[in-house]
Methionine import ATP-binding protein MetN
Amino acid sequence: MAEIDIVNVSKTFSTEEGQVHALKNVNLSIEKGDIFGIIGMSGAGKSTLVRCLNFLERPTSGEVIVQGTKLSSLSEKELRSERKKISMIFQSFNLLMQKSVLDNVCFPLRLAGVKNDEAEKKAKDLLALVGLADKAKTYPAKLSGGQQQRVAIARALASDPEILLCDEATSALDPATTTQILELLKDINEKMGITIVIITHAMNVVSDICKHVAIMENGEVQECGLVSEIFAHPQSDVGRRLVLKDVKGAGLEELKTKTIYRLTFDHQSAFEPVIANAILKFNTPINILGATTKNVKNIAVGEMIVGLPEEQASDIVAYFKERGLAVEEVQING
Ligand SMILES: Nc1ncnc2c1ncn2[C@@H]1O[C@H](COP(=O)(O)OP(=O)(O)OP(=O)(O)O)[C@@H](O)[C@H]1O
């Protein structure tokens, strides 16, 4: 049994301008203990989907099944109790600014009727877990964005959730802080076994910590699978665009050629002899447009974008593949 099953979920909003089909027949299965990414550009339907996961938004049709329970079958009271299994963190942290860090983390515990001293002890333990043991008495305004998100994570964990939903939780943070928060989430997943669902528009967030990913566009899942496989062989147009967006400095938009390829290999040093040998063998220049190394699920993956002469492209691609490189053609419009 999956931790979360999303079965044929559609969501339509009626607006003054007409109907908006935010989700169209979405099917996903999220296993217990997974870190599952949902990625897409703005307006793809990610936030609507994540809000359907805990029925903050009721799907227009379809079912959300959490640990075998159909959320649509529950009364409001049962739903409130079911929601305790599912915590959420947001881009904007949503802390209570007039309350101390400790009181922010205690808040859900007090709401649940936990006695003061017990709540404080648990909150202090959680603050230690997120690395903020010394900030209990501080007010959120005195904390950096990364620290505020740590408080939000401690608060989200206070109700002992089994599932943590993260809606663009690192989008307001700089790259170094993003990495630290993602490390913390990975730690929580490993130590506490909590299933984590990450909504993001950034491929690096997915490649840093997610095991599986669903790529969304126009309210539909365009492809879904293991991050390592999708990263090496994106099948959908939006998948290719998202993976490529991550490659810095390629200047791809300016190129008016269609013979651009993305090569990936899990030992970057191996690129060099292959490229150099191909140049010698085919007696032609190979234009390196960008190169980077990424950590995909703890494996260093080298990525290179190259321009190939059109008439020799298929032979060179075959040569790369024979030498163990994964090769994807990059479609450039124009
Ligand atoms: N309450 C609502 N009423 C009407 N339309 C809505 C509502 N919520 C979302 N939508 C529309 O549904 C579509 C999907 O929106 P959603 O916020 O889920 O996308 P998203 O992928 O999370 O985008 P972003 O990254 O910009 O937040 C958009 O066209 C949006 O305008």
Summary: Residues 1-227 form a domain with the Rossmann fold fold (CATH 3.40.50.300). The mean pLDDT is 88.
